[in-house]
Design goal:
Length: about 140
C-alpha cells in the first residue's frame, strides 16, 4: 500500500484542499513552492500508460481547478503542472499523481532546463519514427 493510499484511507493525516468521489488534492509536505498541491485518483493506478483515460481526464480537470484556485487564492503569477512517471523521471510514489505548483515572480525556483540538440535532421526523424511505431502497436 502506498503512502497515498494511506492518505485516501485516512490512515495518515494530510491537509486536504479538494475531494470528490474519485479524486483527492492535498498539500505536499515537501513543497517546491508553498502551496504545492498533489492531485491523485483515490484508486491507485501506475504507470500513466496503464491509467484509464477517464481517470486522467478527471485528474486534469481537478488540476485545472487547483491551478485556478492557486492563482485566485494565493495570488500566484503562474502555475506548473507536472507528472513524473517512473523512477528515472523522479517519481517516488508508485501511484499516479500530478504536482500543481503555484509560481510567483522572483520565487527563486529554477528548473535548470538544459535543452539538448539532435545531431542531425536524420536523427530526429529516426527517433520520431520509433515513437510513431510505438503508437501503432
Amino acid at each position: 500500500m502506498t503512502i497515498f493510499e494511506k492518505i485516501v484511507n485516512r490512515e495518515i493525516p494530510a491537509t486536504i484542499v479538494y475531494e470528490d468521489e474519485d479524486t483527492l488534492a492535498f498539500m505536499d509536505i515537501g513543497p517546491i513552492i508553498k502551496g504545492h498541491t498533489l492531485v491523485i485518483p483515490k484508486t491507485c493506478y501506475d504507470p500513466i500508460s496503464e491509467t484509464p483515460d477517464e481517470v486522467l481526464a478527471k485528474l486534469m480537470i481537478v488540476c485545472k481547478r487547483i491551478a485556478a484556485a492557486q492563482i485566485k487564492g494565493l495570488g500566484a503569477d503562474g502555475v506548473n503542472i507536472i507528472q513524473n512517471n517512473g523512477r528515472a523521471a523522479g517519481q517516488e510514489v508508485p501511484h499516479i499523481h500530478f504536482h500543481v505548483i503555484p509560481r510567483f515572480e522572483g520565487d527563486g525556483h529554477h528548473w535548470n532546463w538544459n535543452a539538448k540538440k539532435y545531431d542531425s535532421s536524420s536523427e530526429i526523424e529516426k527517433i520520431a519514427a520509433r515513437i510513431r511505431e510505438g503508437l501503432a502497436g
